[in-house]
Amino acid sequence: MGNVCSPSFSCDGTISQCLDCSVRQAGYICYLRDNLKDLRRESQKLIEERNDVRIRVIVAEQQQMKRLERVQGWFSRVQDVLYEVDRLTLESNREDAKLCLGGLCTKICKSNYKFGRKVFRTLREVQSLSLEGDFKEVAQPAPVNPVDERPLPTSVVGLQSTFERVWSCVMEDTIGIVGLYGMGGVGKTTLLTQINNKFLVSPNHFDFVIWVVVSKDLQLEKIQECVAEKIGLFNESWSSKNVQEKAQEIFKILSDKKFMLLLDDIWEPVDLAQVGLPIPSPRSTSSKVVFTSRDFEVCGQMEAHRSFKVECLAYEDAWELFEEKVGREIL
Asked: Which GO molecular function, any one, fits this protein according to its record (predicted)?
């Protein structure tokens, strides 16, 4: 007799997968009520955790801190999942009534299965968000605004062309120190203010734009204080340090930063190194210094790379300004 060969196929794996799938589907239905109960409990815990985190954020923001992006993202995801929990809770009464029929209808079983799967997955998401909500920090110090807007006079008649020349020079890579000189009242401070405010709307690479009024009574510590306030060094311990210690602290911060220092009304040269400022040079102009003075000699003593004389107004500009101030009706 010959051997009878018949093909054989292994279906153990397929059967196992089918059984696992069937068990899982049945579990969505059998444990639906328990999962709904767990979902309500876990969502309430999530609400309490969200409220606690929200209080921490409010307190931090009252201290001028900025909430972390991941905390804001977590708030958004919590809001979405709680909305889904509310929707499932409203739908649960209808599905629970179907469950009481004992699964006599195939359509009812299918509906219970789909609903049970949604409940199960939402429960897992709620639990996951609860774990994510354990934040060590919810906010961080808000970044310092690199530029503080300063008030400009209502009129800048006759200064626009000078401003454009100075601004073009300030933006040059090979120029680090710029001096503006001229007699009192010709508009040097106005020009410096225009430069300061221009950084609010013009793309730039500066980490800090620092404004300091120097005046006739030169005080290095006053300059250091203005710089320290802008770069975040000014605190309770600051006043107990001497000039050299303050200079070291300032230099430590600004040595790897890009800054624009605007010094208004210099009567004598300011030793930038004693203040603690890295001195811009023609080879290293990532930081800049622009100052105003009445005396051209101060520009040389400050080793300015470029100096601009701010002239008195031409006759036409002076008359236009006079008309503007006095008023045409009075004239």
From this structure: ADP binding
Tell me the C-alpha distance between 212 and 250, whole Å: 15
Per-domain residue ranges of the chain? 14-141, 159-326
Residue range 159-326, CATH number:
3.40.50.300
CB 233 within 8 A of CB 249: yes
Q: In sequence order, what are the beta bridge partners of 139?
A: 67
DSSP state letter for 147:
-
Kindly report the pTM of this predicted structure: 0.56
Q: Give the count of alpha carbons within 13 A of 24, CB side only.
A: 10
Question: For residues 320 and 331, what is the distance between their CA atoms, to the nearest angstrom?
Answer: 12
CA-nearest of 232, 291, 297, 283 to 261 is: 291
pLDDT in tens, 222-270: 888 888 888 877 777 888 888 898 888 889 888 888 888 999 988 998 8
Alpha helices (H) in 100-179, listed in sequence order: 106-132, 160-170
